[in-house]
Amino acid sequence: MKKFAFAVLALAVLVVGMAFADDAVNQTPETQGINTATAVYCLGTVTETDAFVWQQSSENLGTGAVYTPAPLGDGERMYVVSYTEDTIMDQGYGEYTKTMALDTRNKVANQFNFEATKLVDFAQDEALGLGEMTTEESILIDGAGQNHTGNDRYICPFGSSIFTTIPDYCNIVEMGSSFTGFQVENLNTDVEERHVAATADVPVALNYEVELQNAYGNSQAWINAHLMDARGNDTFPAVDIVYNELTTADGFQTVFYKRMNYESGTRRA
Fold it and tell me: Which of 45, 80, 227, 230 has the fewest CB atoms in 10 Å of its CB?
């Protein structure tokens, strides 16, 4: 009788910025929206490749045919968001569904600029016994800003009275997951990201969640962050946080689950 080790990994991670933190950039006069939906049910080979890089400044991105950003100007804020997913299901039966939505408009605290949700099932071809699935997904947000006045950055009347100056900051966070194996049920990932808002009342946010069941293979999920914030008009950091976390499981997994949340702003609910 075969014995299997049942691994249940359930962990929630919350990484938060201090009270002196990110100030989201405002939208440009022209905004864009991209939405996609994908569904594939296939015995054979399935591949999916997604990638985007989004750069946005409260001023401009630099000059020249290729953007060559100079050091941030007085009061300038800049963000870079990057997302990738690569999936291949080979010599087996796979079911793959995914929706993605990107919106460059200003968002409020319960909305996001980028969202992605996928659900995957895979089982190798029993006749061949060689099928395998490999998937990896990650998202990164990198934001920096020069100190600037807070007098016109808040709807809340108490915000500008408390934070007359929003200090320098430089914060980068990356989250993601991967799986390689010959069987998986209900592999589900959810991504939510926000960095465009009309005022500093709305914090910058990045959320990532992964869950899979009854899987044979190797699963990984991770978060890496480096957070630096100053105080007042000081040009040196008052806080410097380096955070790294990795969860792995190898073998038969009844459940693998991880949720990670990052939120940074001078006003957080």
Answer: 45
